[in-house]
Amino acid sequence: MPLTLDDLHGGVGAHRERKRVGRGHGSGKGKTAGRGTKGQKSRSGPGVRRGFEGGQLPIQQRMPYKRGFTNIHKTPWAVVNLGRLETLQVEGPITPELLSAQGIIRGIEFPVKILAGGELTRSVVIHAHAFSDAAKAAVEQLGGSVTELDRTDEWVHAKPRSRRLPLNRELKRARTGKVGGPTRREAIAALAERQEA
Asked: pLDDT (tens digit, 9 = 90+) per residue, 78-118?
C-alpha cells in the first residue's frame, strides 16, 4: 500500500489543542477560567515578578545568612609549605614559575603564599606574593631571604559592584536622574572633565 500525505503525522503529544477558557461551566474552565476567585493573580496584566514572595524577604536573599554562601570573588591562593620547598633540588631563587614547572602549584596565574608548615634545614632565596610571619622568620634564621612580589593576578582589583561604589556616590551627589538634575551620561562626562582639570 503506497504512503500518502494523509499517513504523515507527528508523534504522540507533538500537537496539543489549546485550552479554550471562559466558554461555559460545562468545560470545567468557565467563569473564573482556572484562575480562582479574586486576587492579583486572577486579574489581567503581568501579575507578580519572578521570585516575588508577597513582600517577605525572598529565598535568594534569605539563603546567604541562613545557610551561608560561597564568595565567587575569593582569591584562590596557591599555598606552599616550607617542608615542600625542602625537597626541591634546585639552584638559585625559588620563584612561582619554578614552582609551577615542578608541579607544586597549579599555575603562575595564582598568587603564591609561603607558610611555615614542615621543616626547612637549608638556606634558600624565595620570591612569592606573600609570606606568613613564621615562614619569613624561619627562612631568615637559616640565612636565606624572602622577596614579596607585586600581585598582578586578576583577583587584585575589586569586583564590579564595589568597584563602582565611588562613582555611584558622586552621581548621587550630582542628583543624577532627579528633576532638574543631569542625565547619567552628562554627570559622568562632568566628572571626567573635573578629574582631568
From this structure: 999 999 999 888 888 999 999 999 999 999 999 999 999 99
**Does residue 66 lie in a domain region?**
no
Instruction: Based on the fold, state whether residues 117 and 179 are members of the same structural domain.
Output: no
* In contact, 94 and 87? CB cutoff 8 Å: no
Q: Are 151 and 111 in contact (CB under 8 A)?
A: yes
At 104 the three-state DSSP class reads: coil
Please return the burial class of 81, using the count of CB atoms within 10 Å of its CB with bins 0-12, 13-18 and 19+.
Answer: middle
Q: 3-class DSSP state for residue 112?
A: strand
Residue 90 within any structural domain of the chain: yes
Q: Show the domain range for 111.
A: 78-148
The pTM assigned to this predicted structure is 0.55
Neighbours of 95 (CB within 10 A): 18
Cell of 147: 622577596
Q: DSSP assignment, residue 40?
A: G
CB atoms within 10 A of CB 135: 23
